[in-house]
Structure formats: structure tokens, C-alpha cells
Amino acid sequence: MEMERLDRRGLWMAVGAFVLWGVMPLYWHLLKAVPSLQIIAHRIVWSTLLVAGWLFWKYGRGWLRETLAHPRAAWMLALSGGLIAFNWGLYIWAVNAGHVVETSLGYFINPLLNVVLGVVVLKERLNRVQWTSVAIATGGVLWLTANYGSFPWIALSLAASFGAYGLIRKLVGVPPVRGLGVESLYLVLPALALLLWGETHGEGGFVAHGGVAAWGWIAGALLVFGGVLTALPLIGFADAVKRIPYSMVGVLQYIAPTLQLLCGVLVLGEAFDRDRAIGFGFIWLALALYAGDGLLRGRTAASAAAVDT
After folding, report:
1. Total structural domains in the chain?
2. Which of 50, 95, 155, 307 could pair with 105 as two cysteines, CB 3.0-4.6 Å apart?
3. Which domain holds residue 100?
4. Using one digit for the tens of pLDDT, what is the confidence trace for 225-239?
5. Can you say whether the dihedral through the CA atoms of 177, 182, 187, 191 is positive or negative?
């Protein structure tokens, strides 16, 4: 019964994280007057203050020493921190450069990569329906890649970096919030240096310069709150990957790119032609198959448990 509760919590944590990530292009689009590197630096600094500050308040200075005492934690969290910083930077630049649909393609590819990593690296097993859904989704991604019009380097880079990040967080044996705190501390000094350079060279978000002047204090408030929006879904994601199979995380992750696609097409006015509709249709069919199989197996297991009791 306890395991069932933990699995359900992991499921909802994953869903919540992916919904937030799905609608986030609209938030970052509000800050398009601020250079992308400055937005990334603000995300790092304010999320560090939020997460590390809470950890120091609750656990004292000992939390950092205890976290880094885990085998391989120091270098693995340094690597995961670098991967997520790269992912953020490329993503925000792409959103504000008008490539929201391509970013959504990247996060459609990423769940397939997670499923493959779950099977190859973590030795998770898929049944016939799940393999079928993976094959259909792979066909959809290949169709999108072949008909995109140019090599989708943004999409592939986003998929690879976030897939590697998720795998590392799955493998490193530290609590989710503590792991994010260590990642943030690794990144905060370079981020502060970048912020200081930007503010003294006319590219900051707090001192009004050029296009940012029209925002004034609103831009600053959005940048600060961006730290909260950075920390919450990452905490939820890191918690979820420890509670539910990584292959399930891979399929649930389709929530985020679907919402990103809708934001790009319906709100930001990006193109969505017939070829893209066909490719995305394959992916949505795969998601429906995988989710339906999971629900059926869950009900079967619950019925069997009820009979046993």
C-alpha cells in the first residue's frame, strides 16, 4: 500500500512538472527584451537563493557535506548542473528567437530517449504494447525530422541534454531538493559574474537599458519569479524519477512539448503545416497507447490485490 502511494505521488509530481514546463514559453516570451544569457543567470541566482536558502534554514550547513558524501555525488551533480544550464540557455534563446515549435520537437524526442535509456542503461522492461507505442512515436519523430526543412539541431540538442540530465538524477543517490541545491551552488558564482557584467555593460534586467526600459520594475519582478518557476518543476521532476519507472517518465514527458506546441502555434503564431500535423499525430497516438496500457495494467493489478485481500 505504501509503494502504491509513493508511485501515485511520483506520477502527479511528474505531471505537474511537465505542465509547468509546457506553458513556460509564454512566460519567457514576456522577457524577450532581456538577453537570453541574462535570463539564464537570473534563473540560476534566484532559484539558488530559494532552494539553498531553504536547505540551510532547515538542515543547517551540514546538508551540503552530507549530500556530497554520497558516492559520486560531487562530480555527478556538477555534470548534471552543467547539462541543465546548457538546456535552459538553448531553450530560452530558441523561444525568444521564434523557434518554439522546434523546441517542442526536442522535447518530443526526449521522452523516446528516456525510454531507450530506461531499457538499455537501467534494464527496465517494456511489454508488447509499450514497444509498439515506442515504435509509432519513433516513426513520428523521424517523419518530423525528415520533413522539417532543415537539420533540427536545436531539437536534438535539447533532447540529448535533458535526457542525460534526467538519467544522472536517476542514478545519483541524493534527495531531489538537496541535489538541486548542490547543482545550483555549482552554477551560482558564474551566474553572478555574468549578471554583474550585464548590468555594467547595458544588458541587464534590473538597470533599465534600451528595450528593457519599458518594463522597469516589472521585468525585474518577472526575472526574480523566474527563479521560482525554475526550481519547482525541477524538484518535482527529480522526485518523480526516483518514484516511478524512467520509461514511464519518458511517456509522461509528452505533456510538456504538446503544450509548448500549442503555445507556439495558437498564441505566438508559429507555422504548423500538414507534414508537422502528421508527425505529431503519430506521437499522440503512441502516447494514447502507452497511457491506455498503463491504466489497464493498473486496474488489473488493483483488482488482483482486492481479490487477495
Report:
1. 1
2. 155
3. 2-308
4. 888 888 888 788 877
5. positive
